[in-house]
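Example record used in the benchmark description.
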Amino acid sequence: MISIKDLQFAYKRKKIFTGLSLELQPGYIYGLLGRNGTGKSTLLRNISGHLFPDSGSITVSGEIPGNRRPSFLQEVFLVAEEFYLPNISVDNLVKHNAPFYPKFSHEQFRKYIGEFDIPSDNTIQDMSYGQKKKVLISFGLACNTSLLLMDEPTNGLDIMSKSQFRRVIAGSLNENKCIVISTHQVKDLENLIDRITIIDEGKILFDQTIAQITQRLQFKISFDQHEIQEALYSESSLKGHTIITRNTDGEETRLDLEMLYKGIITNRANIQSAFN
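Model output (structure tokens):
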């Protein structure tokens, strides 16, 4: 679906990517994790055709995003972190934008709006930021594009809305669809994504499926000083030490995505050694 090879990109003199390569397939939800300003949004905009590589290549289902052909644009939707919606009703928003997406489903859109509890009779400018974002997410899902890109989609959502978001996204995936979610709020993606890609300073630090992670690593609380010292990553807590260790006995534990992220950022070599 998405093939990125030796991507080079810079804003004037600020280099963002200097040889990034990545392959993403349909049928999966990918979590693109990293701190703010590390290149996540830039990567999504290169994939969507809003920005253009300085060198290297990006193809999406055989199309070059930068060519912005109609056949490509109707199969990709980007939910940007910063967005503008006109001061019109939700119905008019759909009326004027849905025709650009041949697979748009009005029935699905109404369903998503209902699940997010959006007052459809309000004009968009009367809505809160969180409500506007949920309208945009609902529209993007109803477009039924083969590629859905989401940049910090849970920003501005309250706890209940984040739970609704995870449920809606999980239910929208099919074998022909690829969803890429970029965020620095790693807890929001637990129990949702199939594969984790961590970016820092424009480079890929870690790229593994959830299945591979739980096969190779264990996440647990320990009071054993020897086990704590031998851990790949540890941090103290009120209940003892929370640690990441090699999975030597084949018993899978619950993934702690936030802890894994901190382990990669602070001590990548230790964590990566379990996958070599």
